[in-house]
Specification:
Length: about 180
């Protein structure tokens, strides 16, 4: 466990989460379509987990403290150091807990971790314009709209436009040592 609120805990995603994760993805297929595709089989999950091997992507589960149930998943993707000090996030609620506010709390914990422990300066969320629930979530968390990227990601058999939203670290901010001094 990395960090908590009174209602949720943020846990690193591991190979031992495979069965629970895949079962929740299958149960949430209608909720996720057409916005995203997550691994729903053991084989796909193991292959997908390799994206976290080099540390440039980090995966987490958002668990309900009271029950231990997984409410959703969130990733910090494409961590770039140097002058950028940023990353993007991707996330998905799971159907049994969708609409409960757990994702807002869990993503807030993820952002806190990104800005304090990872010492990132900027986090982006790219969202398909029709995904109203996801757009409302980033707005609740204080992200600012930056524009639309046409044909940004290949999802559900086509290149999809995405709105780009971002949040920068609160001040004061302690930079990562990889940030050049000048």
């Amino acid at each position: 466990m990395l960090t908590t609120t009174p209602r949720v805990e943020l846990h690193p995603l591991t190979l031992s989460d495979q069965d629970e994760f895949c079962a929740l993805v299958r149960a949430s297929a209608e909720l996720h379509h057409p916005w995203m595709q997550l691994p729903a089989t053991a084989e796909d999950f193991r292959a997908w987990m390799h994206r976290f091997d080099d540390g440039s992507n980090l995966g987490f589960l958002i668990r309900v403290r009271e029950t231990g149930a997984v409410a959703g998943t969130v990733n910090i993707n494409s961590i770039i150091r140097g002058r950028y000090q940023g990353a993007s996030i991707g996330y998905a609620a799971f159907a049994p807990s969708a609409g409960s506010g757990y994702m807002t709390e869990g993503i807030a914990l993820t952002l806190q971790y990104a800005f304090t422990e990872l010492r990132l300066h900027r986090v982006e969320a790219c969202i398909q314009p029709g995904n109203k629930a996801s757009l409302a979530l980033v707005q609740r968390l204080g992200f600012r709209f930056e524009g639309v990227s046409p044909a940004y990601l290949y999802i559900d058999g086509d290149w999809r436009d995405h709105e780009r939203w971002s949040l920068t670290a609160p001040t004061p901010w302690t930079p990562d040592p990889s940030l050049p001094e000048v």
